[in-house]
Specification:
The chain is of the alpha/beta class. The protein has helices at about 40-55, 75-90, 105-110, 130-135, 160-180, 200-205, 210, 225-235, 245-260, 270-300, and strands spanning about 20-25, 60, 95-100, 115-120, 140-145, 185-190, 220, 265.
Length: about 325
């Protein structure tokens, strides 16, 4: 771990000394965030390279929108969208995460050069997903998920959202472990915006320590989501469009980095890359200050008197030596009393 709040390194990937930045490449025509701006393969590859140039540590490539109400694309179309982009970015040395709920897409993307599988269903949407990930020995993101969002914000009722999300993630992680995925290759994600309203998302962000206590690296994916729009709008106004939520996203990134998140997933990289580096600098300053305080306490502590060994033949000091005694009157034979 790189800090006491719980940031953990993920086996199989670079060990960053700070919260990593995961840039998003949506190869979809109906993304809530960018409206299909990078639907073309060439444009998507260029965008991924631009994100790396702006400070992304890895790039998350997805070919299926998971926004509420989105209709699923078929398998062949998802493969057509994703695999060429993964292959093109991998040829440029980019670390790639593939965002998919289909085992076939994960399998082909890994073969094309992807290093990580990011499944918003945590392996629930496709029973073949966990065996595919386990066979590839690939890192795997397990997100909190309560079902497809084709019908809107499904099953978003919680008595205690933090406790329930933690418990459900724990159960899902146990299933993934039983399926053969190594413990040091599992990432957890609270699933902000998935079957959750704005209040749920904010409460989860306020308790990231509870998610870190699961013992796995934590991914926070808040970028441009509805709850940020609600926060920015206030009680009366309409939420700003998705692309006007990047400053709010960077604020969440700084908070998540400070809390100990392994990575944050964002659409606009530059501001978040700056935010996590500032968070790391503050963390480093605090560590230095703490080390100095400990060292200062050691150097100012009163020294104890050194232990001395007794002289083998001690001589009494003249002022403390006992006065000489007159010979005893034994009054009889020597030694008799």
């Amino acid at each position: 771990m790189s800090k006491q709040t719980g940031r953990r390194h993920l086996a199989g990937l670079t060990a960053w000394d700070r919260c990593a930045v995961m840039g998003v490449v949506n190869v979809t025509p109906d993304s809530f965030s960018d409206g299909g701006r990078f639907f073309d393969t060439t444009a998507a590859i260029k965008h991924g390279l631009d994100l790396v140039a702006q400070g992304a540590d890895l790039v998350d490539v997805g070919g299926e929108s998971t926004r509420p109400g989105a209709t699923r694309v078929d398998e062949d179309e998802e493969l057509r969208r994703v695999v060429p982009v993964v292959r093109g970015l991998a040829s440029e040395g980019v670390t790639i995460s593939v965002d998919t709920m289909r085992a076939s897409v994960a399998e082909q993307a890994l073969a094309a050069g992807a290093a990580l599988v990011n499944d918003v269903s945590g392996g629930l949407a496709d029973p073949r997903m966990i065996p595919v990930v386990a066979d590839a020995d690939a890192p795997f993101v397990v997100m909190h998920w309560r079902g497809f969002l084709e019908g809107g914000n499904v099953r978003g009722t919680y008595a205690d959202v933090v406790a329930e999300v933690v418990d459900e993630l724990h159960a899902r992680v146990e299933a993934v472990l039983e399926g053969g995925v190594a413990a040091d290759r599992i990432v957890v994600d609270p699933g902000l915006g998935f079957s959750k309203d704005a209040e749920h998302d904010l409460v989860l962000l306020a308790h990231l320590d509870r998610l870190l206590a699961l013992g796995h690296p934590l991914l926070v994916a808040a970028s441009r989501k509805r709850f940020l729009g609600r926060v920015l709008a206030g009680p009366q106004a309409a939420p700003p469009p998705a692309r006007e939520r990047d400053a709010a996203t960077a604020a969440v990134s700084a908070l998540a980095a400070h809390a100990g998140a392994w990575a944050v997933r964002v659409h606009e990289v530059r501001a978040t890359a700056d935010a996590v580096r500032v968070a790391r600098a503050v963390e480093g300053a605090r560590a230095v200050e703490g080390a100095r305080a400990v060292e200062g306490a050691r150097t100012t502590a009163p020294a104890s008197a050194p232990a001395t060994k007794p002289h083998p033949n001690p001589k009494p000091h003249p002022e403390t030596a006992p006065a000489p005694q007159a010979p005893a009157d034994r009054g009889g034979p020597e030694g008799a009393r």
